Amino acid sequence: MNSKGFRFTPWLIGFFVALVAIPCLIYLNQILVAKILGIMVTLTLVVVLRIWLHQLKKRGPAERYSLTSNDVFELHSLVPAFKELTASDQLALQHRIGLIMGTLLIHNPDNLPVELSPKNLAICGAFYALMKLDSPNEVVWFIRQKAQRSVDGKYLYLGTEELQDYLRNISPQELQSRLSA
Fold first, then answer.
1. For helices 69-78 and 118-132, what crossing angle results, to 10°?
2. What residues does each domain of the chain span?
3. pLDDT band at residue 117, thresholds of 50, 70 and 90?
4. How far apart are CA 158 and CA 127, in angstroms?
5. What's the rounded Cα separation, in Å, for the pair 38 and 33?
6. Contacts of 84 (CB under 8 A, 6+ apart)
7. Mean pLDDT of the 76-95 span
8. In whole angstroms, what is the distance from residue 79 CA to residue 73 CA?
9. Which neighbouring-strand residues pair with 134?
10. What does pTM read for this prediction?
């Protein structure tokens, strides 16, 4: 949770202290106090968990684009090394690309002609972001005409032709090392 929202850690410390105190109270023959403390801990824990889960639900899950079989076929043609991965690695890569595609923004400020379909453009951009960025969240890609790739934080500056060349020349070892990272 954020710093302004409900924080669960202080509650965990309080529950831990209370649960440690229960056996100590039983050892000191304070059984009624131990029972009351146990009931209070249980009720408080139920309420706190409901609040915490409600706040987590409000944040919502990260949007993920599910790649169709046609998208996977296009991915095979865009990235030849993708075919050489195992089936489980391909699924993991598809999942990561789908997560990036859910937040990827593509800008074409110079209105350059783009040969790829919008979906293939998003797949290529997400794949490049996965390969080049440490944490590819909320990536913004600016399509440029000049042939110079540049990565600045979450911003990518590159043209579609150089992107396609890069994706065609990726080795299976590079993909495998990125998956294991």
1. 60
2. 9-59, 69-180
3. confident
4. 13
5. 9
6. 172
7. 87
8. 10
9. none
10. 0.61
Strand ranges (E), 39-165: 105-107, 140-143, 150-152, 155-158
pLDDT value at position 1?
44
Task: Record the tokens describing residue 72, joined without a space.
Answer: 């996977």
Report phi then psi at 152, rounded to 5. -135, 95
Locate all alpha helices (DSSP H) within 60-117, ordered by sequence.
Answer: 69-78, 87-101
| Whole-number percent of the chain with pLDDT over 90 | 16
Give the tokens for residue 181. 């990272």
Q: Collapse the DSSP code of 82 into the 3-class scheme (helix H, G, I; strand E, B; otherwise coil) and give the result.
A: helix
Tokens 């209105």, located at residue? 111
Q: Which amino acid is at 123?
A: I
The two counts, helices (H) then strands (E), for the chain are: 7, 4
> In this model, does residue 12 exceed pLDDT 80?
yes
Structure tokens at 145: 């005409």
- Residue given tokens 């000049």 in the structure block: 146
Which residues are bridge partners to 107 per DSSP? 142
Residue 72 near residue 94 (C-beta atoms within 8 A): yes
Tell me: pLDDT of 100 over 80.
yes
Q: What tokens were used for 3?
A: 């710093």
Backbone φ and ψ of 114, nearest 5°:
-120, 125
Instruction: List phi, psi (to 5°) of 9.
Output: -60, -45
Extract the tokens encoding 107.
Answer: 């800008």
